[in-house]
Design a protein that fits this description.
Number of strands: 13
CATH topology of the largest domain: Rossmann fold
CATH architecture of the largest domain: 3-Layer(aba) Sandwich
Strand content: 5-15%
Helix content: 40-55%
CATH superfamily of the largest domain: NAD(P)-binding Rossmann-like Domain
CATH class of the largest domain: Alpha Beta
């Protein structure tokens, strides 16, 4: 039986990857941040929290990384841990650099010293390309990071390459473009929209405030993207791959599609206000996944319309279940009124 260690198993990608690997017959170990031990709702929501062994890890603490690898003795390590958003990287650039950048070097050093035969996946990002002019972006497109998060990711990208070339570590970078799902955090614009549409349609909210409608991104489905992560580590030679849909859509398109699903005119509910953060940088990012298709046999099945429908339907279902008084793992705001309060 193969063993895998997912560093950052409680996030969107980590939860989907854990389920995918469990279904593949792996023995799965997952890490969680010591300072957010209660954030296990995604694993519980997918009903896999009892199928994986959880280990606390702090990316600033090399000893905790060594301990996790020693305990799990993995064949494969997937690093999905990083500072969660671009906004957070501007607020805490030093912590972001430590977590997202230097934390990867700590993992690579642990692998080199404990077992250099471990195969390593590094979660890279389309943010590496920043405002680069080439479209669509491929594995050879120039990098031009435009925020601290992207700069830290770029450092991690090159460290994975350096350890691959210098020490022969089987290290792969997955340059993933925006990938969303019902497990996305509410701080991300896609989920902020789907959650607000559900609440507005059920009379629980009156408006949705956003900072920008013009930014464009290549939006894919996270549950499919984790299959590509696994595929990279099954190859004979390590390499880097762009994972994307090849399509770019704006935040406005997401809004229009989402409100259309519940037969509401989005213009009556959406407010663009400068006091709200711009959750995506200006500019267009659109990936070319042809290498992943050719080498990994991977291509996206869920495109933009299907993704929006999937997310809105799931958030609608959650709020409807909540109104009936059901209790289940979820990230709904803690200040939401209870069904009993709404009835009064």
């Amino acid at each position: 039986m193969k063993k895998a260690l997912i560093i950052g198993s409680t996030g969107q990608d980590g939860a989907y990857l854990a389920r995918f690997l469990c279904d593949k017959g792996y023995q799965v170990y997952g890490t969680y941040r010591k300072r957010s031990a209660s954030n296990l709702w995604r694993l519980q929501y997918l009903d896999i929290h009892n199928d994986i062994e959880l280990i606390p890890v702090d990316m600033l603490d090399g000893d905790s990384i060594i301990k996790a690898i020693t305990i799990s003795q993995p064949d494969e390590v997937y690093n999905l841990a990083s500072q969660s958003t671009v906004k957070a990287s501007f607020e805490q650039p030093v912590i972001g650099g430590e977590d997202t950048g230097l934390g990867v070097t700590r993992i690579l050093e642990a692998i080199r010293n404990i077992n250099p035969r471990i195969r390593f996946y590094q979660a890279s990002s389309s943010e590496l390309f920043g405002r680069g002019g080439q479209k669509p972006q491929t594995e050879t497109s120039p990098f031009h990071p435009a925020n601290p998060y992207a700069a830290a990711k770029l450092y991690a990208y090159w460290m994975a390459n350096i350890y691959r070339e210098k020490y022969g570590i089987f290290a792969c970078n997955g340059i993933l473009f925006n990938h969303e799902s019902p497990l996305r955090g509410l701080e991300f614009v896609s989920r902020k929209i789907s959650d607000a549409v559900a609440r507005i349609s059920l009379g629980l909210e009156k408006r949705l405030c956003l900072g920008s409608l013009e930014a464009e991104r290549d939006w894919g489905y996270a549950a499919e993207y984790v299959e590509a992560m696994w595929g990279m580590l099954q190859q004979q030679q390590p390499d880097d791959y762009v994972i994307a849909t090849g399509e770019a859509h704006s935040v406005k398109e997401f809004v229009v599609k989402a409100f259309g699903m519940v037969d509401l005119n989005w213009q009556e509910y959406v407010r663009v206000d400068e006091k709200y953060p711009v959750l995506l940088d200006d500019g267009t990012l659109r990936g070319d996944y042809s290498k992943a298709k050719r080498v990994l046999g991977w291509e996206p099945k869920v495109k933009f319309d299907g993704l929006v429908e999937l997310m809105v339907k799931e958030d609608m279902s959650r709020w409807q279940r909540w109104l009936k008084g059901e209790k289940f793992p979820w990230d709904a705001p803690h200040d939401s009124p209870s069904p009993r309060e709404l009835a009064q």
